[in-house]
TrEMBL record:
Signal peptide positions (record): 1-20
Protein name: Isoquinoline 1-oxidoreductase subunit
InterPro entries, alphabetized: Multihaem_cyt_sf
Keywords: Plasmid, Signal
Length: 198
């Protein structure tokens, strides 16, 4: 029985998604990696704990609408992306999503909110992509909303909608770490060459 447990327990931990780890290491944790490209890829791997977390993936779908919750179930009520990534006429995102989170009566969850609230464009959909593919997409101005690496750093480090991921309201697990650490990791990743994991 011990040998079965010894094999199964590590296997369960290895099968967990990147975001299952609740902490985000700071860039100095990677200083011992001498090869600059390897260090850069490792920094992005750490950023992946945030990028592959439901707080990000729910609004970075490749389909016609968002998912919701920590289990990424289909949005309820059913909604569609719409032409401007803001829902369909008569059922735009701000029909339900206001400028801030609203706790439901009885405190049993909340309706998330931030101004503005919208989906990422389809070109920035990440669901189903490997971390290396997400990395390549994020670096490509043709697929990242026209952002330079400097603008990407600003987005990750200071954009309020990105920051919402760490303050998602009742009933939702926040993204790992903090936006400050995520911004530091982004800066260090860029400064080491913005290499992507294989």
């Amino acid at each position: 029985m011990r040998s079965v447990t010894a094999v199964l327990v590590p296997a369960l931990f290895c099968a967990a998604p990147l975001w299952a780890k609740d902490d985000l290491q700071t860039p100095d944790a990677f200083d011992a990696i001498a090869d600059k490209a390897e260090r850069s890829a490792a920094l992005f791997q750490e950023m992946g704990k945030v990028l592959t977390h439901p707080r990000c993936l729910n609004c970075h779908p490749v389909t016609g609408g968002p998912t919701q919750g920590d289990d990424m179930h289909p949005h309820d009520p059913p909604v569609v992306r719409g032409e401007a990534d803001f829902g369909a006429p008569g059922m735009t995102c701000n029909t339900c999503h206001g400028a801030e989170n609203v706790t439901l009566t009885g405190g049993q969850g909340s309706i998330p909110g931030h101004e503005p609230w919208s989906l990422a464009p389809v070109s920035m959909g990440w669901v189903g992509l490997s971390l290396g593919e997400i990395c390549q997409q994020i670096k490509d101005p043709e697929r990242n909303g026209g952002k330079t690496l400097e603008e990407l750093h600003e987005h990750n480090a200071h954009d309020g909608l990105v920051g919402w991921g760490w303050h998602p309201g009742a009933g939702r697990e926040p993204a790992p770490g903090s936006q400050e650490i995520f911004g530091q990791l982004t800066r260090a990743w860029i400064d080491t060459g913005a290499a992507c994991p294989g």
